[in-house]
Amino acid sequence: MKKYKPGWFLLLSLTISVFSFTGCARYLVNDPLENTSRTICHDFSLFDQTPDDDETFVILALSGGGTRAASLSYGVLKEMKNTPVPGSNKTLLNEVDIISTVSGGSFTGAYYALFGERIFWEFESRFLKRNIQKELALKVANPYNWIRLASPYFSRIDLAAELYDQTIFDSATFNTLAPKTKRPFLIINATNLYHGARFEFTGPQFWYLGSNLCSYPVSRAVAASSAFPFLLSPISLVNYPKPQGYEIPQRDRDALEDYWNNKRRYYAVYNNFIYAAPTAHKIHPYLHLMDGGLADNIGLRAIDDLYARGDIRAKINSGKIKRLLVIAVNAKTESRQNIDQKKSPPGLVTVGFKTATLSMDNYSFETVEMFKERLNQRIQHQRYLDDCQKLIDDHCRDKFQLSPLAGGHMKLYVAELTFDNIPEKPGDPDIKGRDYYSRLPTSFHLSDDQVDDLIKVGGWLLKNNPDFRKFIDQYHP
Fold this sequence. Notes:
Elements: H1 6-24, E1 31-32, H2 51-54, E2 56-62, H3 66-81, E3 96-102, H4 104-115, H5 119-128, H6 132-141, H7 143-149, H8 156-167, E4 185-192, E5 198-200, H9 203-207, E6 211-212, H10 218-225, E7 235-238, H11 250-256, H12 263-273, H13 280-283, E8 286-291, H14 300-309, H15 311-317, E9 323-329, H16 348-395, E10 411-417, H17 434-438, H18 448-463, H19 466-473
Parallel strand pairs: 2-3, 2-9, 3-4, 9-10
Antiparallel strand pairs: 1-6, 4-5, 4-8, 7-8
Helix pairs in contact: 3-4, 3-5, 3-18, 6-8, 8-10, 11-12, 14-15
C-alpha cells in the first residue's frame, strides 16, 4: 500500500475545505412570501395621514452621483430642518411625505428614513467623510474574501453590501420602516437588467416576486441602487413560485386591460406582471439589479408612477393636498471629456462609460419637465374654467356655476436643485463658482473640504431656488 507524506494530507484537506467553502459562499437571497393574508410590507397605500397633514405634501427626489450626490442631498436636508413652516411649530423637514432615491442619494435618503434626525450628528462621520472606495478595495484584497469571491454566487457587490450593513445602516431591514405608516415613505430605486425598467424596493414590487420585503436588508437595496456598471456587479433576487391565494391587486389587473387608453400605466404594470404570471418563476427565476440611474437618475419616475397608479392622484382629487412641493436634488456634473477634439474614435473604456451615463445625464431634465407638465395640466385647465366662470358672471343674465376640476386649485411648486443654478461668481464667500462643483468626481471618496462645500451649497441652492422661495412666500396656513 502506497504511503502519503503528512504534507500531502494537509494540502488535500485544505484544498477540499477551500472548494467546500467556495461552494457555500452565496449572496443573501430575498425571503419567499409565505402568507398572502398578511398586509403587504412597506406599501404607500398604508401610508396614512390626517387630512391636515396632507394639506402640505412634500416630495424629495435625491439623484445619483456617489458621495457628491449624498453630500449635496444632506445639505438640502439640513436646510429643510432649519426652515420653519409658516404659522406652525414644524420645520419643512417634518413635512416630507415621500423620499425617492437613486444611487448616491440612496445613502442619504435611507439613513434619514431609518434614523430620523440622528443623521445630523452621525452621517458625516459614518459615510460622507469616509473613504468607502479604499475600504471596499481592502475587503477585496483580503485573502479570506478571495475564496468567497471565487464562488459564482458571491461577488464584489456582496462585499459592498456587507460593509454598508455593518458600518452604516446598523443591519436594519425594511421591517424597521414597515411599522412607520407616517412620513416619510422611502422608495429606493434600482434598474432591472432584463428589460431596463425601474425597480423599486417596496412591498408591492416584491409582491410580484412572491417575496416578503420586510426581512430584506436596507443595505442591499442601497447597494443595488448604487451598483455602477463596470465597477460593481449586480444584486440578484429570486422570483418565487406563488403561494396559494396569491393574486395581484385589482387596480393592476385593470391596468393590464387598459392598453389603448393608458399605455404608460399598462407598461408600468406589465414590466412587473411578467414575474407574477403562474409559470413566471420558471421563465424568469431571477432578477439582476444595477444602478438606478440607468433607468432614472433623478428618482422622479417613481413619483410619476405613484401618480399614474392613482396613489397621489387620489389625494389631489379629494382635495386633501392643497400645496404640493417637489424638491429634486440633481447632482449631475458637466462632462469634460475631449472626445470631439480627436480625429480617432474614442476607445472601448470611454465608449462603455459614456454608454452607461448618457441616459443619466440627458434625461434628468426631461423627467423633471415631464412631471411638472403632467401635474400642471389640471391646474391650467382649472384656470381656463375660472376665466370662463368670470365671463359668465360678468356678461350672462342667467348665472350658473361651472363644476371645478378635482384638485384643480392645488398649488404646485417644483424646485430642481442643480449646479447649473450656481453663477460663476455667487457673491457668497462660502459658495464657490459653478465650475468647481461641476468638476467634482463621481466616486465614494471626497476630501472633507469638498464634502463641506457640497453641504453648504446644498442649503444655498434650496434657499435661492425661485420655486422654493415662491412656496414659502405663498404659504398661508
